Amino acid sequence: MSIKTPLKIVFFSLLTATILSCYLPVSAEVLGKIAAVVEDDVILEQELDKEVALIAQRIQASNTQMPPEYILRKQVLEKMIVDKLQRQLAEKAGITITEEMLNNSAADIAQKNNMSLQQFREELQRQGLDYKSFLDNMRNEIIINQLRGREIGGRIKVTDREIDHYLETQGQASNDAIQYHLGHILIAVKEAASSAEIQQAQSKADKLVNNLRAGQDFTQAAISESEDDNALKGGDLGWRTINDIPTLFTDKVKTMLANQVADPIRSPSGFHIIKMLDIKGLNDHIITQTKVRHILIKTNDLIDDEEAKKRLIALKTRIIDGDDFASLARAHSDDKGSALKGGSLDWVGPDDLVKPFEEAMGKLEINQISEPIQTQFGWHLIQVLDRKNKDDSLEHKRNNVRDSLRKRKIEEETELWMRRLRDEAYVEIMP
């Protein structure tokens, strides 16, 4: 709980007492019991009970030993408090998610699981999960991610010099040839903590490391003891290359073996405990590049979809009959940039083009011409001229380093930002 002036606390208590004395019967009936006051909002016991039940269900499904109920409730309540504070900030910043955006996100998740949206809903129901609750949680995650992107991501930059420096200091060997599966526990320390509080946290971290080395289950320990955003996931940070791991941990990670638990690592946020859950290697990065050209017809008030398709079919017939593709592209394509080059997009790699175009291109043989294909830009006639495999390891490595350095900076800044947000907020947890 944050430190506030006595005057503010007394005033709040008197105001609360006055309000409760006047409206207690009605408020209690309408709102239910309050679990915590968070700035100018509250978390109700019934909300906490519902979230605890959901988290407990996930823990049971993962075959992890359930922590004592009071510990689980404490962890879930802390997560709800931080989420509530972030939602309040997002609301002040005007961040909202429309129903269309929410439904599109749900459809994307269903598609990634090779299901229709209806099948996905039925699968959630089969697992005992309410679809509306799923959407509410997803809305909350999207809003919080957008808030963090605005508050943190926008000011995080990675320069070419930083990438060059990293590659020079780490050597030219492929550091992304190895992936590490890490577990993480944070024993938090406030920014203005006293020496006694720091010593107490360090003693707790040392004891926990000894227990983990003696065989205590890491996932259960993370759920019960960790004070970071991954606690309720059992502290699982997932598979990461050395570039993706916070700078604070990299020296330790390089020397760790599978199942090893490192000594506590101190940072401004507290004491970190990491466990090497597993290690694996990766292959070289080989991509397929395609040399492709196209003719684009855009739709407008005068040209609808049918007219655009009809024009492209006519152009395809002319090409088959012997007309030059490049000449027709220069004369008819609405993509003026490529039209000047006879419709050529030159060599393209994976994810360089929009998905419908890339999927249609991938099905074509060399020199084959597609049927009219629709994308967000209009209707296309596509011809593949050549294909080749390319060792993209160096470029891929630089992109990975850029993404990883950015991710690392964001992760480190997010941890401090969330801790500061929690410490500076007015929070009162009810007995």
Question: What is the element layout, followed by pairings?
Answer:
Elements: H1 6-31, E1 34-38, E2 41-44, H2 45-61, H3 69-92, H4 99-112, H5 117-126, H6 131-151, H7 160-170, E3 178-188, H8 195-213, H9 218-225, E4 236-241, H10 247-255, E5 265-267, E6 270-281, E7 286-297, H11 305-320, H12 325-332, H13 336-339, E8 344-348, H14 355-362, E9 373-375, E10 378-391, H15 393-424, E11 427-429
Antiparallel strand pairs: 1-2, 1-11, 3-4, 3-6, 5-6, 7-8, 7-10, 9-10
Structure description:
The chain has 431 residues and is of the alpha+beta class. The protein is built from 15 helices and 11 strands. The radius of gyration is 28 Å and the shape is elongated. The two termini are 13 Å apart.
List how many beta strands DSSP finds: 11
Strand proportion, as a percent range, falls in: 15-25%
**What's the total helix number?**
15
User: What characteristic shape results from the CA principal axes?
Assistant: elongated
Gyration radius, rounded:
28 Å
Roughly how much helix do the residues carry, as a percent range? 40-55%
What's the overall average pLDDT, rounded? 85
Largest sheet: 4 strands, antiparallel
